[in-house]
Amino acid sequence: MTAAHPHNGAQSSLSYVSPSPTSPWGTYLSQVDRVVPYLGPLAKWTETLKRPKRALIVDVPIEMDDGSVQHFEGFRVQHNLSRGPGKGGVRYHPDVTLEEVMALSAWMTVKCAAVNLPYGGAKGGIRVDPKQLSLKELEKLTRRYTSEIGIIIGPQRDIPAPDVNTNGQIMAWMMDTYSMNTGATATGVVTGKPIHLGGSLGRVKATGRGVFVTGREAARRLGLKLDGARVAVQGFGNVGGSAAELFAQAGSKIVAAQDHTGTIVNKNGFDLAELVPYVKANGGVGGFPGGDAIDNESFWDVDCDILIPAALEGQISAARANRIKAKLVLEGANGPTVPEADDILAGRGVLVVPDVICNAGGVTVSYFEWVQDFSSFFWTEDEINVRLDKIMVDALKKIWDTADRHKITLRTATFAVACERILIAREERGLYP
Ligand code: GLU
Fold this sequence. Notes:
The protein is an alpha/beta fold. Helix content is 42%, strand content 16%. It folds into three domains: 51 residues, no CATH class; 133 residues, Leucine Dehydrogenase, chain A, domain 1 (Rossmann fold, 3-Layer(aba) Sandwich); 153 residues, 3-Layer(aba) Sandwich (Rossmann fold), CATH 3.40.50. Strand 1 and strand 2 form a beta hairpin. The structure holds glutamic acid. The site of glutamic acid has 11 residues, from strand 3 and helix 11.
């Protein structure tokens, strides 16, 4: 692309965000910069990756149970649609910002291309603490938000899914609201739905399963036996909890777990048959009697072989990267590692399986769900898990070969594989008009 012209209004950076190097969008931009040398002639399209195609900000007013009206900020960003409709979750969290949703949408673009799904990348979010809302208020919030973003979503346009603090019930309300507004039941407008509304078997645990599959492959290459391996998990929700269960089934010991309710450790490994129901009943790991509580910051010093950050962005700072004991980091979360920390981990010989491949199991089974909805023909859980395993293993192999060929990290290799696919599509489609 040509450099920005100083007088014509064209810009080389966006006027509406000012990312810091460790913010999600700043992190993403530096990940893009690192892949440019490996893109060959396609590098001329790099600028396309550094700006979202479309970003919608919506006001979401709802009447609360006490009769007052409250307004929430909602977002839906379609980062790139070169390879297909937008795809990506919707997050409900008090820290959601436009800039965060932009980064998350961009990582969806890269993730979908990394596993070769026919999707672009999108993401949505509402700046809200859903734990403060009643079920009725949550439903109103979801329906009003869906109605507001209804002008850009659709089964062939952009397909939301669950993310942090959203689930099958919220997807059911989104599907219903979109369907009521368009006059026909459109199961394919969201994924991660309940099973009897066109949901897919295996979807709930798919992200955690993908983390396990990529972890299993990486451990094999490192010569690290899963049987007896010590695993520390940050975030014990849908992703971290499901991954922990699969590692425990493979004989690993879950020696530390952290979430917003606290941090617990047990050198001998937690009994997951007790921890999983405890988390369900109590809303978090804090206070679990089968482990000892430690202070939150000490989580990063825990002696372990595998570390799974499965919470929010920016958790692995440079300072924490120097303390991590694990040989293998599996990014269940999106954007957990800042670029400087990435370099520190690489320098210390810690292998990082990056988010854009590690947690791609969720969107892969979302794709299966969408395909099943269109064909109205549903697969068995076994078929889903076998197909998921194959897609993840094949994608990781291609990424690993790319990393070996160029002597680059798995993150830059994943970006290289994905960005090549995205920019080839972009080039072949051509610049309109
Ligand atoms: N929210 C998940 C992610 O970050 C899944 C998105 C989807 O299934 O579309 O990958």
